[in-house]
């Protein structure tokens, strides 16, 4: 491990947000009633995005009724909420006022990114509001089937056809983000939200970076290390011609492989990863391979994602043209 000891010091510090972003006080816009429809017979809510411009009417946190907790983590809680007047259902992500300053910086970074994105494959932000006690709330689109991580636990594995549909949507989101110089840096099953129609959207931008320049370096140690690309562990060896976006493609490849195999690809089923084991497996081992009965198209697609040399990985735009993706028509499936 002498090679590891000789590496330069790791960059463990995230940049501070701009002063104007540290304590945003934005009015919370009320989306028009045409944006959301409620299916009372199924007792579920389906959100349909339209081109209608959001109303300028503002609402307070008192107008939202908390229905249940959807999840915890990162110094905050996500609730399913209902707007009392329109009955529209949303997800409210609340970061507590006494959270670690680093967590607050991450949530402010997420707000900054969500407020400038508009893609059917990226979770929609309906508004931001300061809450009592210094808490910060983000009112977001509600996805009624949870995350791909939840689905994996309930159904064990995904078919190639289902993965092609998932990949096409995630690549659509990545292509949009990358074209706007936004890198996610934490793509994994738990950050991909899904509804009962199997529409998939990218979420959780707490560690994302907005690139100032096309070739701006982006190899700091943030995000979940299990899904980090080789060049993020070892930029000197694998980062030649690093373009700043290839790490998201590696993470997508590992995510799809995990959904297909039912366990994290670099480790045997049931084994919990630790940092040293993952670093050695990702940097010094070969990329994980799929089972023998996998189709040629899926195998080739995964090889395009999991190239250890970042410059050899296909971009999101290129992968959208891959035969594995091109054969899927989302409108008819």
Automatic annotation (TrEMBL):
Annotated Gene Ontology cellular component terms: cytoplasm
Record-linked Pfam families: Pkinase (PF00069)
Assigned keywords, A-Z: ATP-binding, Kinase, Nucleotide-binding, Phosphoprotein, Serine/threonine-protein kinase, Transferase
Domain Protein kinase: 64-325
One annotated GO molecular function: ATP binding
Compositionally biased residues, Low complexity: 33-51
Protein name: mitogen-activated protein kinase kinase
InterPro entries the UniProt entry points to: Kinase-like_dom_sf, Prot_kinase_dom, Protein_kinase_ATP_BS, Ser-Thr/Tyr_kinase_cat_dom, Ser/Thr_kinase_AS
PROSITE patterns, per database record: PROTEIN_KINASE_ATP, PROTEIN_KINASE_DOM, PROTEIN_KINASE_ST
Binding-site residues, ATP: 93
Catalytic activity: L-seryl-[protein] + ATP = O-phospho-L-seryl-[protein] + ADP + H(+); L-tyrosyl-[protein] + ATP = O-phospho-L-tyrosyl-[protein] + ADP + H(+); L-threonyl-[protein] + ATP = O-phospho-L-threonyl-[protein] + ADP + H(+)
Family designation: Belongs to the protein kinase superfamily. STE Ser/Thr protein kinase family. MAP kinase kinase subfamily.
GO BP annotation list: pollen-pistil interaction; response to other organism; response to stress
EC number: 2.7.12.2
Span list, region Disordered: 15-51
Superkingdom classification of source: Eukaryota
């Amino acid at each position: 491990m002498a090679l590891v000891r000789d590496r330069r010091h790791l960059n463990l510090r995230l940049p501070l947000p701009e002063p104007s972003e540290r304590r945003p006080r934005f009015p919370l816009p009320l989306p028009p009633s045409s944006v959301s429809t409620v299916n009372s017979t199924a007792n579920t809510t389906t959100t349909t995005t339209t081109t209608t411009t959001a109303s300028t009417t503002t609402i307070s946190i008192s107008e939202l009724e908390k229905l249940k907790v959807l999840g915890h983590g990162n110094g905050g809680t996500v609730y399913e909420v209902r707007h009392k007047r329109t009955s529209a259902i949303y997800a409210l992500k609340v970061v507590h006022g006494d959270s670690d300053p680093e967590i607050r910086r991450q949530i402010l970074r997420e707000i900054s990114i969500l407020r400038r994105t508009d893609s059917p494959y990226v979770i929609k932000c309906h508004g931001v509001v300061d809450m009592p006690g210094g808490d910060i709330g983000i009112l977001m689109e509600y996805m009624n089937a949870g995350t791909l991580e939840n689905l994996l636990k309930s159904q064990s594995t995904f078919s190639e056809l289902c993965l092609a549909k998932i990949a096409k949507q995630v690549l659509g989101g990545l292509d949009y983000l990358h074209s706007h110089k936004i890198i996610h840096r934490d793509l994994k099953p738990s950050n991909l939200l899904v509804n009962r129609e199997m529409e998939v959207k990218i979420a959780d931008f707490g560690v994302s970076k907005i690139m100032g320049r096309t070739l701006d370096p982006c190899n700091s140690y943030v995000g979940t290390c299990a899904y980090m690309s080789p060049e993020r562990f070892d930029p000197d060896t694998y980062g030649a011609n690093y373009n700043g976006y290839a790490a998201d493609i590696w993470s997508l490849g590992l995510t799809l492989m995990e959904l297909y195999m039912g366990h994290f690809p670099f480790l045997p089923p049931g084994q919990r990863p630790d940092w040293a084991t993952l670093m050695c497996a990702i940097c010094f081992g070969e990329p994980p391979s799929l089972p023998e009965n996998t189709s040629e198209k899926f195998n080739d697609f995964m090889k395009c994602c999991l190239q250890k040399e970042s410059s050899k990985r296909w971009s999101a735009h290129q992968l959208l043209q891959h035969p594995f993706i091109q054969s899927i028509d989302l409108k008819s499936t």
